[in-house]
Write a structure and sequence with these properties.
Number of domains: 1
CATH topology: Ferritin
Order of helices and strands: HHHHHH
Structural class: mainly alpha
CATH class: Mainly Alpha
Radius of gyration: 17 Å
Strand content: under 5%
Low-confidence stretches: none
Distance between the termini: 53 Å
CATH superfamily: Ferritin, core subunit, four-helix bundle
Number of helices: 6
Bound molecules: magnesium ion, fe (iii) ion
Length: about 170
């Protein structure tokens, strides 16, 4: 069971780092989306949800006695990974941002499914409840993006045809 607890802890730290990264990427994206108010609103709502997720994961880490410096190390690694996706978020093209967001949300979904399974193995029902709540928020965000990507793409394409700044 000790190995299971160690694995769970490592995955929990990764999830915390992932959510910190999600916050940074969404904040950068939301600040650029003047001509896509619906998308901006949805991202802003998800930023608030994500802030709640970061606190909830921090509380679970504190409860496990995981120290902050280890969290910092993992965050460094995660940032390097996320840099490989950074073109999607830091570029000023909303379609790539939408693609990157959808990809990231699905990584979050997979992460919470894994954490739910590990916490169940440990009999940690409080943690399971936290992860289920996070999972539902990620699924709702992924569904929203899937449901709006056609509209976002059409808006982008028609603005480009009119030679309007496609992003703003
Ligand atoms: Mg999240
Ligand atoms: Fe998310």
């Amino acid at each position: 069971m000790e190995q299971t607890r160690q694995n769970y802890l490592a995955w929990l730290r990764d999830a915390h780092a992932m959510e910190e990264q999600a916050l940074a990427m969404m904040q950068s994206m939301a600040s650029r989306l003047e001509t896509y108010p619906q998308l901006r609103k949805r991202i802003q709502d998800h930023i608030r949800e994500t802030e709640g997720q970061v606190s909830a994961l921090s509380r679970l880490l504190d409860r496990q006695g995981a120290n902050a410096s280890v969290v910092k190390d993992t965050l460094g690694k995660m940032t390097a990974f996320a840099q490989s996706m950074s073109g999607m978020f830091t570029g000023d093209e909303v379609v790539k941002g939408t693609l990157g967001s959808y990809t990231f949300e699905n990584m979050e979904i997979a992460t919470y499914r894994i954490l739910i399974t590990a916490a169940e193995q440990l009999g940690d029902t409080e943690a399971v409840e936290v992860f289920i709540r996070c999972l539902e928020e990620e699924e709702a965000m992924a569904d929203w993006l899937a449901g709006h990507s056609a509209e976002i793409t059409r808006t982008y394409l028609s603005r480009a045809e009119l030679d309007l700044p496609a992003q703003r």
